[in-house]
């Protein structure tokens, strides 16, 4: 059933739905938002979505390898955590190695947990997850493309001098003997 009308109640319900969609679904274009709202039962045009997005203060922010719509609150949160990650990496030198679909980050003793949490809360989204020990952090990936995208973005968080750190690359783990 399509939800039509231009009344204030319909507009408020549509905008609440739009906020919910933006919060739950990474959406990079107004055309995608139109389609999602139509699937939710709203007969909307791109112009309606554009007006709603402006009224709600939606902004586009980097998430993973693209830009998506976000509410001002979630956009600010992402930036806050990205700033935290940058600050940690300014203070803690990190070396990076690769093993299959995982990156191994080596840092100073006691710092891996803080770095893992900052990564998990940042706008870096290509990883499947992180696992931290005392000074070693594993960042897990589903495929090579996601790992490479993440690595390129992660390196933008590191200070300029970090490139001169001795790398752990390349190494691979071998299969354990049977």
Short description, anyone?
With 178 residues, this protein is of the alpha+beta class.
Features of the shown structure:
elongated; 2 domains; Gyrase A, domain 2; four-stranded antiparallel β-sheet; disordered C terminus; 178 residues; 6 strands; 46% helix; two-stranded antiparallel ribbon; Arc Repressor Mutant, subunit A; alpha+beta
Structure description:
The chain has 178 residues and is α+β, with helices and mostly antiparallel strands. The chain folds into two domains: 8-57, Arc Repressor Mutant, subunit A (Orthogonal Bundle); 80-164, Gyrase A, domain 2 (2-Layer Sandwich), CATH 3.30.1360. Helix content is 46%, strand content 16%. The strands form two sheets. Strands 3-4-6-5 form a four-stranded antiparallel beta sheet, with helices on one face. The chain has a two-stranded antiparallel sheet with strand order 1-2. 22% of the residues are buried. The model is unreliable at 163-178 (pLDDT under 50).
Helix-strand blueprint:
Elements: H1 8-24, H2 30-39, H3 46-56, E1 59-63, E2 66-70, H4 72-91, E3 95-99, E4 102-106, H5 112-121, E5 129-132, E6 136-140, H6 144-157
Antiparallel strand pairs: 1-2, 3-4, 4-6, 5-6
Strand content: 15-25%
Radius of gyration: 21 Å
Total domain units: 2
The tally of helices reads 6
* Name of the level-1 CATH class of the largest domain: Alpha Beta
Give the N-to-C terminal Cα separation. Answer: 61 Å
Please give the share of residues in helix.
40-55%
Beta-strand segment tally? 6
Q: What composes the largest sheet?
A: 4 strands, antiparallel
The largest sheet has its strands arranged as: 3-4-6-5
